[in-house]
Automatic annotation (TrEMBL):
<feature type="binding site" description="in other chain">
    <location>
        <begin position="88"/>
        <end position="91"/>
    </location>
    <ligand>
        <name>phosphate</name>
    </ligand>
</feature>
<protein>
    <recommendedName>
        <fullName>Purine nucleoside phosphorylase DeoD-type</fullName>
        <ecNumber>2.4.2.1</ecNumber>
    </recommendedName>
</protein>
<feature type="binding site">
    <location>
        <position position="44"/>
    </location>
    <ligand>
        <name>phosphate</name>
    </ligand>
</feature>
<comment type="subunit">
    <text>Homohexamer; trimer of homodimers.</text>
</comment>
<dbReference type="GO" id="GO:0004731">
    <property type="term" value="F:purine-nucleoside phosphorylase activity"/>
</dbReference>
<keyword id="KW-0328">Glycosyltransferase</keyword>
<feature type="binding site" description="in other chain">
    <location>
        <position position="25"/>
    </location>
    <ligand>
        <name>phosphate</name>
    </ligand>
</feature>
<dbReference type="GO" id="GO:0004850">
    <property type="term" value="F:uridine phosphorylase activity"/>
</dbReference>
<keyword id="KW-0808">Transferase</keyword>
<feature type="binding site">
    <location>
        <position position="5"/>
    </location>
    <ligand>
        <name>a purine D-ribonucleoside</name>
    </ligand>
</feature>
<feature type="binding site" description="in other chain">
    <location>
        <position position="21"/>
    </location>
    <ligand>
        <name>phosphate</name>
    </ligand>
</feature>
<dbReference type="InterPro" id="IPR018016">
    <property type="entry name" value="Nucleoside_phosphorylase_CS"/>
</dbReference>
<dbReference type="InterPro" id="IPR000845">
    <property type="entry name" value="Nucleoside_phosphorylase_d"/>
</dbReference>
<dbReference type="InterPro" id="IPR035994">
    <property type="entry name" value="Nucleoside_phosphorylase_sf"/>
</dbReference>
<dbReference type="GO" id="GO:0005829">
    <property type="term" value="C:cytosol"/>
</dbReference>
<feature type="site" description="Important for catalytic activity">
    <location>
        <position position="216"/>
    </location>
</feature>
<comment type="function">
    <text>Catalyzes the reversible phosphorolytic breakdown of the N-glycosidic bond in the beta-(deoxy)ribonucleoside molecules, with the formation of the corresponding free purine bases and pentose-1-phosphate.</text>
</comment>
Length: 234
């Protein structure tokens, strides 16, 4: 049965899904990496596809930007379509001297400015962490592929412009800033499903280096490969 934001029928979405923020990145992944991709969603332009990757049935769908947006899609995918493994493949800004543009960052845990956890648990901070099994798999897959990959804390900010000084939290070893992983990790814990965020550095907040919007949409294929291999890994 379709949900308010996803028009797929039950069974049209695989139980393993890649989640880029950009729906056109989802289309690129489907067209370039999946065999026989079939589009299952275009509600609000949030394109979603199911196909096979190396013989395994997988899906890919955009989430939009920010925790409010990804939480709508992740909630519906988990509770209505039975998705069990969700991997965000996103872009992020480096806030760390050792993390360079186009490197991969796997978010081991995510600090956040969002109130997503506090809405449920006002009395304490809940640590938003990735699923360790997925994290371990992704790290070794990336390493075996020879991709420069960092693992550690990231910051999921509610704001792209403004908000708290990301560079200050960078001094605590936090590697990069993006806008969704903490929300996805929290929903993974809440619904007992596996979640992970793999990000490509698209901007460097210390050096001012940046990639174009076309590169963000169409390249960063290392992250896509690592995401897909992790999705199907036993
Ligand atoms: O490239 P995506 O996956 O959208 O991720 C990053 O890019 C967007 C901001 O430009 C935010 O969604 C941020 O998390
Ligand atoms: O600087 C950046 C780059 C990508 N995504 C973000 O949220 N911030």
């Amino acid at each position: 049965m379709p949900t308010p934001h996803i028009e797929a029928q039950k069974g049209e979405i695989a139980d393993k899904i890649l989640l880029p923020g950009d729906p056109l990145r989802a289309k690129f992944i489907a067209e370039n990496f999946l065999e026989n991709p079939v589009q299952f969603n275009q509600v609000r332009g949030m394109l979603g596809f199911t196909g096979t990757y190396k013989g395994h049935r997988v899906s890919v769908m955009g989430t939009g930007m920010g925790i409010p947006s990804i939480s709508i899609y992740a909630n519906e995918l988990i509770t209505e379509y039975g998705v069990k493994r969700l991997i965000r493949v996103g872009t992020a800004g480096s806030i760390n001297e050792e993390v360079h543009i186009r490197d991969l960052v796997i978010g081991q845990a995510a600090a956040t400015t969002s109130a997503i956890v506090r809405h449920d648990f006002p009395d304490f901070d809940f640590p938003q962490i990735a699923d360790f099994d997925l994290l371990d798999k992704a790290y070794h897959i990336a390493k075996d592929l020879g991709i420069t990959t960092h693992v550690g804390n990231i910051l999921s900010s509610d704001l792209f412009y403004g908000g708290p000084d990301a560079l200050k939290i960078g001094q605590l070893g936090v590697k990069a800033v993006e806008m969704e992983a903490a929300g996805l990790y929290y929903l993974g814990a809440k619904h007992h499903v596996q979640t992970l965020g793999i990000m490509t550095i698209s901007d460097h907040l210390l050096t001012g280096e940046a990639t174009t919007s076309e590169e963000r949409q169409l390249t960063f294929t290392d992250m896509m490969k690592v995401g897909l291999e992790t999705l199907i890994a036993e």
